């Protein structure tokens, strides 16, 4: 579970009786389903905006989340009660400092600059450079902007080193305008995109639809066939689960026993893939594996270890390295089985920080060296040792996380 706010800077204001009304804590609790979102959610983002409840719900969520480092804590530059448009360096630093103090955390995972439509230059010259420095210092893991338009977000992608952009209402069934600028540029630059207000169109966007009202979504030109095909593929990969009469839902995290089984399966499959690959390794794949290890080593450098972007690069290269070996085994069934198992590990590790990257890289180097020698037994043993060590490093902690999330 993560919290996502949408305010830029803050000043306290004792008067909470403003337009939009006042939402008390009891109503907030009920809206969150007696706080079950805070403990049971698998990847939900709870809006952490000053306009929701005029300040109380964000404070309430802060109290619930304070000290909980086992969840993704996603907050942008926040506010308490009265919004102040301040995209300066000092304003950003002040807001981040206040949020960390209020939340009882030592870092924030995602920071979004909110709606700088009329303050584009100030955001480019003040907010973004300040956030980039905070990311380098490990105070935040990643940053970007959240807006209702895509063109300015595209400019931010071009002119800053931001990690993520949130576009609201421009990537829906009926409005796909973000496809004209933001989406292709973000894909090219490796910048993540959060699609917000995805249901803000058609009948779902009506203030008070009549009983039995319908809406023609034909212009959206979205056939149910590719959607069903995508869900079927995700189900086959174990990423979603189909429930009778309810449809699809994100697959739950594995429990401790399931995680142990996953590693046991890896120990059966991946050493065999390495053994086979060692006898069929060509020069191109060897070079690609070597480049992957170099990228992992670079991403794990001490100065960059705490940045989200480099950590993401590290795990992407880790995944790429293992998939290359699986493919080089020249066994489609074996390769497919390994890829499916690794998808679960990827979900776990995207939300888990650790300090064992150096050991992991060294183990990959030993695997690569055995492959270069065309030594099947050594390649299999190096892979088996790596998987065993990986479980010793990650397994117990990940299992505890899964158990805590299910309590």
UniProtKB/TrEMBL annotation:
Which keywords fit this entry according to its UniProt record?
Answer: DNA-binding, Transcription, Transcription regulation
Listed InterPro entries: AKR, GntR_C, NAD(P)_OxRdtase_dom_sf, NADP_OxRdtase_dom, TF_FadR/GntR_C, WH_DNA-bd_sf
Write out the biased-composition intervals (Basic and acidic residues): 10-22
Cite a single Pfam family from the UniProt record. Aldo_ket_red
Top-level taxonomic group: Bacteria
Q: What are the start and end residues of every segment in region (Disordered)?
A: 1-22
Q: Which residues form the GntR C-terminal domain?
A: 261-389
| Name of this protein | DNA-binding transcriptional regulator, GntR family
